[in-house]
Amino acid sequence: MMDTRFSSALQIIITVAVNEITNTRSTSDMLAAKLDANPSLVRRLVAPLMQKNILVSSEGYQGGYRLGRPTSSIYLSEIYLAVTPDKKIWGTRDDIPAECFISSNMNEWSAKLSKEAEQALLGLLSEKSVEDVISELATIDGGKCPLGRALAT
Question: Cα(68)–Cα(57) distance, rounded to whole angstroms?
């Protein structure tokens, strides 16, 4: 099964950012509805984002989530690392008997390749901010949505 923590966390952050532009509150229930998920999933994803000051929350009648920093200073690599701190791109099998040159060295080689792939991924994600994503989404939308038209200008 594919891990969707990063894409779900990114959608939460983009939704909060756009809601701030439109003066709309971002609650766990509202964000869960946008993700078609349970509010407890939203809270689990939001907790590490709050620890990294990507999101902040306030309680009470007017409470909800807000961005902890401007969209231009929140990078996708931070979001990825916050919600997938111990995740590797792929794992290796340690249970294969080391009987030949391939099985004796495959785990070490695969771990090295996985680390290189992770570094490449983090490099790409470090180049894109939340502000960039919102702009790209508005471009992809092509004016079909009123909000997309407003954000594209």
Answer: 9
Residue 69's domain spans which residues?
A: 5-152
Secondary structure of residue 64 in the 3-state scheme = strand
Number of domains forming the structure of the chain? 1
Give the DSSP letter of residue 98: -
Give, for all 153 residues of the chain, the pLDDT tens digit: 578 899 999 999 999 999 999 999 999 999 999 999 998 999 999 999 999 999 999 887 778 999 999 999 999 999 999 999 887 777 777 788 888 888 888 888 988 998 999 999 999 999 999 999 999 999 998 888 887 777 766
3-state class (DSSP) for residue 107: helix
Specify burial of residue 124 (Cβ count, 10 A radius: 0-12, 13-18, 19+): exposed
Instruction: Report the candidate in 28, 22, 23, 20 with the shortest Cα–Cα distance to residue 8.
Output: 28
Residue carrying the six token digits 């290189």? 116
**AA identity, residue 59:** E
pTM of the full structure: 0.86
Neighbour tally for 64: CB within 10 Å: 19
Residue 49 belongs to domain with CATH number: 1.10.10.10
